[in-house]
Amino acid sequence: MAVRHRLIRVSPSAVWAVLADGSRYAEWVVGTSRSRPVHGQWPQRDAAIRYEVRLGPAQLVNETVVRHCEEGVRLELEAHAGALGTARIAIELRPWGEYCLVIVDEHPLRGAGGRLHNVGFEVLIQLRHRAMLARLARLCESEARDSRDAAQREPVMSAVSRGDGAGAYSA
Predict the structure, then answer these.
(1) What is the bridge-based pairing of β-strands 32-39 and 2-8?
(2) CB-hemisphere CA count at 13 Å for 87?
(3) Which of 9, 41, 88, 90 is the most exposed place for a label (fewest CB within 10 A)?
(4) What whole-number distance in Å separates Cα of residue 125 and Cα of residue 107?
(5) Burial status of residue 43 (CB atoms within 10 A of its CB: 0-12, 13-18, 19 or more)
(6) What is the pLDDT of residues 128-140, one digit of tens each?
(7) CA atoms 29, 32, 35, 39: torsion sign
(8) Contact 82, 62 (CB under 8 A)
């Protein structure tokens, strides 16, 4: 079983906001491009998204289905990878002080992935998870930073605009 974790320097709710948007799946899941909803309301149980996986000139279309969801805490997915079979991917969010500890646990369920699963395959999954969690962290932390910066740039109404004659706007 490939289990990996990463501390992301935002709140669990900020991480959940990204995970709960199925159209953003390809932004943080390594190897995917262009995700879109297929049915259901992501991330509710049995909702599914479809996405592309590019391998050089080849393009595969895969699907991921939500099998279990505890809003803001846990998301369990079943990834269907064609001939490779299916895998269970559980993502858990734990508050860690003011930040979020994200734990990813993946293992094959059916198909060739399960039959071929060995120590070497486990290493590849670990490398993929490391990259995936790094992408998720960059995405979440960048959005939090952008939100803070935007809030600091908003003009603050001064006393004159309230009618007491002290000035216009200050930034």
Answers:
(1) unpaired
(2) 25
(3) 41
(4) 9
(5) buried
(6) 889 999 999 999 9
(7) negative
(8) yes
Q: Kindly report whether the global pTM for this prediction surpasses the value 0.90.
A: no
For 18-57, what is each residue's pLDDT tens digit? Answer: 999 998 998 999 888 888 889 999 999 999 999 888 777 8
Q: What is the DSSP string of 20-53?
A: T-GGGHHHHSTTEEEEEEEES-TTSTT-EEEEEE
Nearest partner of 79 among 60, 92, 59, judged by Cα:
60
Q: Please state, as a whole number, how many other Cβ atoms lie within 10 Å of the Cβ of residue 166.
A: 11
| DSSP H or E segment with residue 96 | strand 86-96
Q: What is the chain's mean pLDDT, rounded? A: 85
For residue 101, list its beta bridge partners: 7, 94
Take residue 108 and report the two structure tokens written for it: 């094959």
